[in-house]
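tRNA-guanine(15) transglycosylase-like domain-containing protein
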Amino acid sequence: MATISFKTIPINNSTVTSAARLGELAISSIPKIIETPAAMLYVRSGVVPDVTYDFVPDNVTRLLEIPLGSLVESMNNLENAESYANFARLVDPIYCPFHDSLVEVRPGGNGNLFSSLWTKSGRKELNIDRFKKLIQLVQPTMYETMFDGDTPFDKTTDKRFTKDRERSRRFLEHSLENQAISSNLIIPLVGGHDKRHRQLYLTEILRLLPTYEKNIFGISFEGIHAYGPSTEHINLDAIKFVIEETKSKLNEHPNLLYTMPLLWRPDNVIRGIDLGLDLFSGAYIPYISDRFVILTFQYNKDMPSTSTRTDYNINAKEYFNGKQALLTNCECYACKNYTQSYVYHLIQTKELLGRTLITIHNLYHYHGFFQEIRKNLRNNTWNEYRIMILEQYAPSQQK
């Protein structure tokens, strides 16, 4: 595995009252520093959905988010390759979350010696040895360890919380003890919405940190939702206390990276940054692109205002004769070369190029948004910027 390091950068901004922070992620396998907050590039089985790597916009952060669920069925093929990166001809760093942000995790798939990955073809059981083998085959730059996390809100008993903690701790310790896969770990913080159990598990992590500080790279907040489409509308205010209290206990470790798997709608991105999160799943883009949704929210004050809506569905009949670009004055490849009516026609005729052009635009728009986030954090304008974004989404939330 590549060697990596993460450090936070002080923000000279007395008006920032949130926990928002800037960071730099250095990876030995690439020359360029990855700046955070950042969205990853969601990849399924080595492929960006609907787009070849040649057409991924230049402003996209090239940190590949490859869920283990998209790889578990390919283990036999991977055994014949030196590594997954060689097998899929990937040159960018890889982050492997345990679950896929796009796929709902159903209850009842875990045991004392195994956990389940939910894929589009169903449940795939993964025991400790098989998990280790998969990580050795993939050789990700960083990865999330196995965990239980089956703790639905208002449906979890105290006994279930205890099993969740014990199993997740056992899975974590097995990863730390195995020299071949013990580096660059993202630790899932479990315990659901139960404050006591989350604190008990955090205490166990704090006990491990002094010994394994070089191995533990970051924290992922888990067990507080079921993944999948419902997380687009998650109420982050309802789980704010989970993140804030946890981070307050980790103040002595300022260079831990924080992440949480969700379908990160732009207004929730702002709330996540206010909570001090550094790395965001990129799964929101294939999720909306698959539904023909075009992002149009104003992420830069120099853009023409689109105050009436933050996005629209290009599959609507009103775009049959649309002569303008998907978004006026957008500099992405799709908007500079094609019209709304042409993309509408491609969708109606079920041409794959339609989804490709939608994805190109949405990737450009979404990652441009993160560029502006970092710029405003540096320039002492974060509060004004966050208000600009949140106000655009407020009418749709009230509706």
